[in-house]
């Protein structure tokens, strides 16, 4: 699915909803974007530095019980005060994932400067404020009732920065960014939405020092971590099921059991992801001068003969032939 499925100008019904201030005259932009924010998230009072040159884009998609809201905004301030809460309080919370810029997130008399890759938790039933220079953030919004943490636990989470350099926060940030960059591919996916919520819950619970996940949720989170680890280490020829198990402090036997409900094995997933990356690179015009064997080596196939055999099994023809046929078809 691609961009053709987007609905622009705030019209719904497609895979994503897109609001662009440039679709309106300068005099109508503030009202338009204020309505977009209220419709996509909850009501906020927007206070841009430059109302006449205000330029903003909002992209949203519902993924299971989650709503992803990808916002690119200029220098501005967004305030959710008592008046906005009285107007609409659907008892939602959100995890902001910062992709660009360094805004301040403020709630419950605490404030934190968040950096790219960081997370910030906001309870939308209470007053809050986000302010800063031009930035891009993705808000993952969901009903407060779906978060198995006490009110006391969530009070400890608001107004603080959750560094995204390591641990669960890093995985949440990377996964949310991947989804935001490909909203059409994920929109409506209940299973991926449930997995993301499990991962967010595990990350927030770990921050508060609690274990809020049921066993089945912990398995989902572990699978997400394993899949992310595999994706990040595909270029390493030494990536094996044993290495994956050791990196996640489980036995190879337990790792195999985790994959039993899946359509493939651990080794099968590693091979399939490597081959898919090779396939994409082979048909990328930017790689036209790169030998197929070099592309194979780039993705963990140091032996050209082994790469050619594996590619032929998967796609029916050797890598070089696949590239030639793709160029002819294109």
Automatic annotation (TrEMBL):
Residue ranges, annotated region (Disordered): 1-25
Keyword DNA-binding: yes
Entry keywords, A to Z: DNA-binding, Transcription, Transcription regulation
A single GO molecular function term of this UniProt record: DNA-binding transcription factor activity
Domain HTH araC/xylS-type: residue ranges: 224-325
Full protein name: Helix-turn-helix domain-containing protein
Species name: Kribbella pittospori
């Amino acid at each position: 699915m691609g961009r053709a499925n987007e609905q622009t100008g705030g019209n719904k019904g497609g895979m994503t909803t897109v609001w662009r201030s440039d679709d309106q005259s300068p005099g109508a932009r503030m009202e338009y974007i204020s309505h977009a924010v209220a419709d996509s998230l909850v009501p906020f009072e927007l206070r841009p530095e430059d109302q006449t040159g205000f330029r903003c884009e909002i992209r949203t998609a519902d993924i299971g019980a989650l709503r992803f809201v990808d916002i690119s905004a200029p220098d501005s301030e967004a305030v959710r005060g008592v008046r906005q809460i009285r107007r609409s309080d659907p008892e939602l919370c959100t995890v902001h994932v910062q992709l660009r810029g360094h805004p301040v997130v403020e709630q419950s008399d605490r404030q934190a400067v968040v950096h790219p890759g960081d997370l910030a938790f906001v309870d939308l039933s209470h007053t809050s404020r986000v302010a800063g220079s031009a930035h891009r953030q993705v808000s993952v919004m969901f009903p407060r009732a779906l978060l198995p943490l006490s009110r006391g636990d969530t009070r400890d989470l608001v107004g603080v920065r959750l560094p995204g350099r390591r641990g669960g926060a890093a995985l949440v940030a990377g996964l949310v960014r991947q989804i935001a960059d490909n909203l059409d591919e994920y929109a409506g996916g209940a299973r991926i939405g449930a997995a993301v919520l499990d991962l967010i819950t595990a990350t927030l619970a770990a921050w508060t020092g609690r274990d809020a996940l049921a066993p089945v949720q912990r398995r989902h989170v572990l699978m997400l971590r394993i899949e992310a680890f595999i994706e990040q280490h595909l270029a390493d020829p030494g990536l094996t099921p044993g290495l994956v198990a050791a990196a996640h402090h489980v036995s190879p036997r337990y790792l195999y059991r985790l994959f039993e409900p899946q359509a493939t094995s651990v080794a099968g997933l590693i091979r399939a992801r490597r081959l898919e990356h090779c396939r994409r690179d082979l048909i990328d015009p930017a790689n036209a001068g790169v030998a197929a064997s070099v592309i194979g080596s780039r993705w963990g196939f140091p032996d050209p003969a082994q790469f050619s055999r594996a590619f032929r099994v998967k796609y029916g023809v050797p890598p070089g032939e696949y590239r030639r046929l793709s160029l002819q078809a294109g």
